[in-house]
Amino acid sequence: MSHLLLYYQRPEPATWVFLSSFLMISVYFVFHRFFCVRNLDIVLLLLLAPGLMMVYEGRRMQATAVVSAEAEKLALRHGIVPADDAGHRPTLTATLAVPSDAGASASRAGLAAAVVPNGDEVAVDMQSADTRGAGNPGPTVRRDGYPVETSRRQEGERLEFYGFLALLGACALLLIRMLCDPALVRRPLLDPNLSIGGLTFIGGALFLFLMANVITSTPEDAARGPRLGPGYPLLSMLPELPTTPDRETRSWPPQGPSQSAWLTNLARALAILSNFLIVAGMVSVGYWHFANIRTGVGCAVLYLMLPYTAQMTGNLEHTVPAAFLVLSVLTYRQPLVSGTMLGMAAGLVYYPIFLLPLWFSFYWYRGAKRFAAGLLVSILFLVGLLLLQGMEAFGEHVRQMFGLWLPRMQGLEGIWAEGRVPTDFRLPVLVACILLSASYAFWPGRKNLGTLMSGTAALMLAVQFWHGFGGGLYMAWYLPLTILTMFRPNLDDRIALTVVRGGRKLGTVSSTGGSVSVSDR
Known about the structure:
- The chain folds into two domains: 76 residues, no CATH class; 290 residues, no CATH class.
- 53% of the residues lie in helices and 5% in strands.
- The relative contact order is 0.11.
C-alpha cells in the first residue's frame, strides 16, 4: 500500500481490532433496543477478535524466537561471543566482524538477511574486519534477558493455545446461535444506523484498502509443497499473500519470491476475485432473496470490518471456498448451478462434503437430480485437472482431495498440536460432527432458505472443532453465511417446491404435521 499512498503503513492487527470493533458497534448496535437478538449477534462476532489476536501474537512470538535462535547460531559460527547483559526487553543486537575478502560475500548476505526491524526481535549490524580501529576489542553480541529462544517460544505456545481455546469457545456460541435460528420466527427489520450511501462508501473504501494490501504483499512460503490436511493439491501450490505488516519478516531463512511470477499473479487475481465474489454475493442475497439491498450491503460491510478479514485476505484456502459457498446460496433457485458451486467448494477444501445431507434434503421434493448433476460435474472437473501433475501422483492427489485416510492423530496444529489437548478426544468430536451432518437430512422436516443458510453456517462451524490444522481460524467458511443468517428476514415460504422450477408448473403448497404436499394448477 505504501506504493500507492505516500508514507502509508499497514495498521497493526491490534489497531485494526480496536478500530473495527468500535465502528461495528456504532454502525450496527441497536441502541434504542438494548436487549435484542441483534445486539447479541454483534457481541458474538466481537468475541472472535480476542482469540484471533492471541493466536496471532503467540505465533509471532514463536517465529521471533526461531529467528533469534538462528541468528545467534549464525553469529557464533563467525566467532562472536556474548557480551554483558543489559536492558529490560529480550533483544539480540550483534555487531559482526566479517572478513572483507570476496569469499565472505555469501556470509555477509546471509547475515544481512537476518535484520528484523522490530526492536524486540533481531537487529544485526555488520562491520568489515579491516574497518575496525585498533582499539576496537572485537565483535560483540548483547543479549538482554535470558534464553530468548526458549522462554519466548514457550510463552508464545501457551498464548497460541489459549487463543485457540478462545476461538473455539466463540465458535461454540455461534454454533448454538445457528442451531437455534430456525426457532426465531419473529424477525423485526433492524437496519444499520448508517444510510445505504454511507455503507456503500465505507464498504468500497475497505475493499480497496484490503485488496491493495494483497497486491503489494510479498508471497510467503512460495514453495509450500504438499499440504498436511485433506484438500485440493493444486490449490496448495499457490503462495499465501500476507496482509499483516510483519508477516514478511518472520521467517528463517528469509524467503524471497521463489516461485514463478505467473503463479504469484494468479494467486493475487484469485484472492481479489474470491473476496469480490464474497462481498458481491452477500449484497446480491440481500437484494434478490431478502428484497432489501440495504441489508445486503450492511452484511457485506460488516464482513469487511471484521479483524479476520484484514488478516486472511490473501489466504486462498480461506477465501476461494467461501466464495463458492456464498454463490451456492445465491443461486439456490437453480439446483444445477448451486450444486456446481457447492461441488467446487467441497473439492477444494473437502470439509463442505458434510453439507450434502442438508442440501439434498432441501432439494428432495424438487431439484435433487439437477443438484446431484451439478455436484458431479464440478467434482469430475477438479479431478480431471489433477491429471496435469501426471499419472504418477494422480492416485495420491485424489486421496488427498477426498481425505481417503483414517483420521490423523499426529503432526496436527492448533488445539490438537502435540502436548495440548489429547488427540484421543478428536475422534469423538469428529463423530459428533458426522451425526450433526446426518441429522440435517431429517431435521427440520420443512427446510427453507433460512434453514439452508443457518445449517450451512452451523456445519462449517462444527468442522472447526476437529479440523486438525488450525481449526477455528477458517472463519471465511462460515462468517458470510452467519452474518446473512443474523440479518435475514422471515423466509418460511422459500422452499424448493415454490422457488425451484421443475418439469411441472408450480402449485400451491400446504404443510400438515411436518409433511409437505403440492397440487398443480
